[in-house]
Amino acid sequence: MTIDQALDQRTQVNDFAIKLANVNGTGSASANSLLMQAIFRMGIPVSGKNLFPSNIQGLPTWYEIRVNKSGYTARALDYDLVVAMNSQTYAQDIADVRHGGYVIYDSSWPLDPDLSRDDVTFLGIPLAKMCLENFKAPRERILMKNIAYAGAVVALVGIDVELVANLLAETFARNEALRDSNQRALRLGYDYAMENLTCPLPFYVEPMDANGSSILINGNLAIALGCLYAGATVAGWYPITPATAVMDNFIQLCARYRRETVVSDDPDVPDTTQNNYLIIQAEDEIASIGMVLGAGWSGARAFTSTSGPGISLMNELLGLAYYTEIPAVIVDVQRTGPSTGMPTRTQQADIMMCAYASHGDTKHIVLFPANPYECFDFAVQSFDLAEKFQTPVFLLSDLDIGMNDWVVPELHWDDDYVWDRGPVLNDEDLARMSEFFRYNSANEDFVAARTLPGSDEKGAYFIRGSGHDEFGRYTENAPEYQEVVDRLKKKHAAAAAHVPAPVIERRDGAQIGIITIGSCDLAVREALDQLADAGIAADFLRVRGFPFVAEVRAFVEEHEHCFVVEQNRDAQLRSLITIETGVGIEKMHPVLAYGGFPLSAQQVVDSVLAKLEN
Amino acid sequence: MPSITKPLIPLSPLPKNDLGLTIRDYEGQMSTLCAGCGHDSVTAAIVHAFWELSTPPHMIAKLSGIGCSSKTPTYFVRGAHGFNSAHGRMVPIATGAIAANRELTYIGISGDGDSLSIGLGHLMHGIRRNVKLVYVIENNGVYGLTKGQMSASADIGSRPKKGEANVLAPIDPVTTALSLGATFIARSFSGDKEQLVPILKAAIAHNGFALIDVISPCVTFNDHEGSTKSYKFMRDHEVKEVETDFIPIRAEIRAKIPTDGAIEVTMHDGSSVRFRSVPEGYDPHDRMKVEEYIRDRQSRGEIVTGLLYVDESAKELHELNATPTSALAKIPYASLCPGSAVLASMQEDFR
Predict the structure, then answer these.
(1) Is residue A583 within 8 Å of residue A557, measured between CB atoms?
(2) For position B268, what pLDDT does the model report?
(3) Within an 8 Å CB–CB cutoff, is residue A272 touching chain B?
């Protein structure tokens, strides 16, 4: 063993990364997330990233687990352990193991000697053979292979096997047969590793108490919860990866928390169930947003969830909502574009599209959550902002936030919360007025009071996407038209003070500033610490809402060099900051990752250092 | 197109409806459509229908898409709430509004371009969901606002004022709706208010999507020789074998309506529709027979008008979704939010 190798074999407690390479459709995802969940329950900071194909069965899929006692849980690029279960991708997966790392492979068949590496330890486990001997049904043999390798990983990295057994028992509480076969498979892999391999490996877990009251949750569920708590009653949607689960979850939550039994007065008539919600699977995304507008016009809190292609389709009606001033919440779980792009890969490339969606002069409110915790809070805020400003509000999540489980602080709800319906006139208000016109009574935020359909005749008006004056009447007169669109611009600007404020963190002696957005957060924070270790102190700003507050421009101006880290090709956040604040684009260096995988700190550090060294 | 307020000149005392309102109270702005436009006659029929039914104006929501037809909601019931939306997108917007507040009466005005081209998909899905919406197609076979292009409802051989004859087969909203399972299907002619008003009233009473295809000639671009959507063509080819009366709730049965052999349909709200002098074998509940009859007449170059098909037994959108009988938009927040304790206990499963 060389000194180099000895260094790479150093003991790492609660600090390592595992990559599990599988074939999709074989049930590996549940085995992999089982490992992640077990580590979470041991109180150790952990993340799991599912890097899956747009396919149901047969294509390569990966799951990455990063364990880090310091809380650095962005995607790691050097893997201590690779579980190579997909022969199609053996070559790449084995190449991805770090120097001195380990590979688990299925030794039911010999490994191609060409794939061997001298600097990596290969751990063969006869998984297929074991499952063939222990399980009868073909599908079970495939499924249990996953639990068996998970059992081996449990032994190799020192995960509490009883804890994993408990998790399986919880998962299959209602299915005894599956519970038993899963438990057997877990023991098969675990026992094989304990008896035949050196356990644990030089990197392993030890219980910590870092997770406190934190929870494991994905962003799509968190958004659905936010919509439930915000009081949304109407939703229109069309299935699309990676946003579908937002509505799947909302449907389930409504079925559980929004149903009430209506007791019948008549003993011969049975009690009925009443749904205090109406969710419509639309014919397309155009119809989805149309339904949201109709419901928003009528005074219900309504939303849709979609991804980039859906926003493209919704553009026309988004302009209608903007111009007629109808509240609407649009959840965009971003995926990789353009066009169909890579539906199961992540990106932040809808920033510009959402900021200015639709033809003509349009500008929207956009919120940028960084994790599921913010997804919940921002979802609620989206509805308040939409009604307060009578306009569409975009909640811009992404596939990484939406579909991966994150460790985040427990969600809290304030029972004193009062929903902000914005200025709405009821019949009593109307009775006190001599006349009502739709757009001529703007408040300090440039928002005019509206009435809802069904209100007194005095409040009736004709809402129209065609040119209108401040009274809501059709116009082709230049000053009358301009008066309305000028107010809309001021209204948008006024929203800056009400969207979530940017997160700004300063370091002593900072020479540079790093600006970022959304799910880049963890990787950038880790990069900041790595840069500090390298002697480069950097200030940090994460935008959380559009329109921008003045601090965004000030932050750029106060640093000689600013870096803008985002996940798209065209530096969209940088462009938006320049367009909207007027700050010089040359002050901001783009740091871009847009290949479809979650950002890692390494990419940020490398880009910043490369620029500073030039 | 400026809007012009209609002068309210008091004439001799006008009759009042149950709400004490006169027909004038159901009118809107002055029409800015071409003189003689069929759409204005449809507007007049709508005004009559709502007035006769004594629908409170503020409990009416009138929606439209884009096009000449879609301008007309400004011309009726000024006290109603109106939404002039985007081309072809009225059905989804109406669906959302109806989802949020089922307490209003919803009427959507569309045209053949709006309904049968850009908005055809939405129309079909509105029918499929059986949204409780009166859906009027003011069908003139032509795009008026863009000056005379043939639409998808134009018949083969039909000629625009300028240019070549249409060579494509038309999309017929009536047979399309029949095949989609629509629950209320009628066709009428803008020049026949006597027929249109009872159809509109029955449509308003209907518990679901009520499609009324109204042939409504475009005097500027499609009322010439060679057009199959002209006043003359309709007067020469209309077949009115299926005649209907609408009988409101509690109304006395008028003596002049013959009851022999009539087919009566009780509507959801207790009113009824009576089919009189229907051709032999015609059954407005029998989708196949209705279609056979219409197609047979079509093959002879005839256009059948009247209330052609009714299914009052089907559930509409809200019934299908077991929502409350009052508006979702009016549910107090306290009934919608599960509260902090539920959120806390739910998260026990997230660990």
Answers:
(1) yes
(2) 84
(3) yes
Complex confidence, ipTM: 0.95
pTM (two decimals): 0.96
Q: What is the pLDDT of residues A66-87, one digit of tens each?
A: 999 999 999 998 899 999 999 9
| Side-chain half-sphere CA neighbours of A533 within 13 A | 7
CB A346 within 8 A of CB A333: no
CB contact under 8 A, B337 and A229: yes
CB contact under 8 A, B328 and A462: no
Determine the straight-line distance between the first and last CA of chain A, rounded to whole angstroms: 38
- Nearest CA to A365 out of A381, A377, A376 is that of A381
Q: Does B103 touch chain A (CB under 8 A)?
A: yes
Closest CA to A288 of A234, A207, A325, A214: A234
At A1, is the pLDDT very low, low, confident or very high (cuts 50, 70, 90)?
Answer: very low
pLDDT at A527 over 90: yes
Q: Given a cut of 70, is residue A410 above it in pLDDT?
A: yes
Q: What is the CB neighbour count within 10 angstroms for residue A2?
A: 9
Higher pLDDT, B9 or B123: B123
Q: Rounded to an integer, what distance in angstroms lies between the CA atom of residue A57 and that of residue A142?
A: 13
Interface of A with B in 235-264 (CB under 8 A): 236, 257-258, 260
Q: Which two tokens stand for residue A201?
A: 């490996």
The three-state secondary structure class of A165 is helix
- Nearest Cα of chain A lies from the Cα of B321 at a distance, in angstroms, of 7
Strand locations in A146-265 (E): 203-204, 215-218, 234-237, 259-262
Identify the structural domains of chain A with CATH numbers, from first to last: 3-204 (3.40.920.10), 217-261+270-408 (3.40.50.970), 427-497 (no CATH), 503-613 (3.40.50.920)
8 Å CB contact of B84 and A463:
yes
Question: Is residue B10 scored above 70 in pLDDT?
Answer: no
CB of A245 closer than 8 Å to CB of A231? no
pLDDT (mean) for A6-32: 88
CA dist., res. B228 & res. A29, Å (int): 62
**Average of pLDDT values for A516-525?**
98
Yes or no: say if A56 and A24 are a contact pair by the CB < 8 Å rule. yes
Give the DSSP letter string of A247-266: HHHHHHHHHHHSEEEE--SS
- Cα separation, A92 vs A465, in Å, equals 54
Nearest residue in A to B83, CA atom:
A463
Q: Report the b/e string of B284-309 with b at 16+ CB within 10 A.
A: beebeebbebbeebbeeeebbbbbbb
| Size (chain B), residues | 351
- Helices then strands, counting H and E runs in chain A, come out as 20, 25
Tokens of A398: 């992404």
Asked if A461 contacts A438 with a C-beta cutoff of 8 angstroms, the reply is yes
Q: ∠ CA A289-B56-B41 to the nearest 5 degrees?
A: 80
Minimum-distance CB partner of B93 among A260, A293, A475: A293
Residue length, chain A?
614
Q: Which residues contact A605 (CB under 8 A, 6 or more apart)?
A: A527, A530, A531, A534
CATH of region B23-333:
3.40.50.970
Q: Tell me how far CA of residue A240 lies from CA of A311, A338, A482, in angstroms.
A: 11, 15, 38
Q: What is the pLDDT of residues A297-307, one digit of tens each?
A: 999 999 999 99
Query: 37-56 in A: which are within 8 Å (CB) of B?
Result: 40-41
Measured from the Cβ of residue A120, the count of other Cβ atoms closer than 10 Å reads 17
pLDDT at A565: 98
| Ranges of each domain in chain B | 23-333
Whether B145 contacts chain A with CB within 8 A:
no
Residues in chain B with CB shorter than 8 Å from the CB of A250 are none
Whether A462 and B350 lie within 8 Å, measured CB to CB: no
The answer to whether A591 and A561 are in contact (CB under 8 A) is no
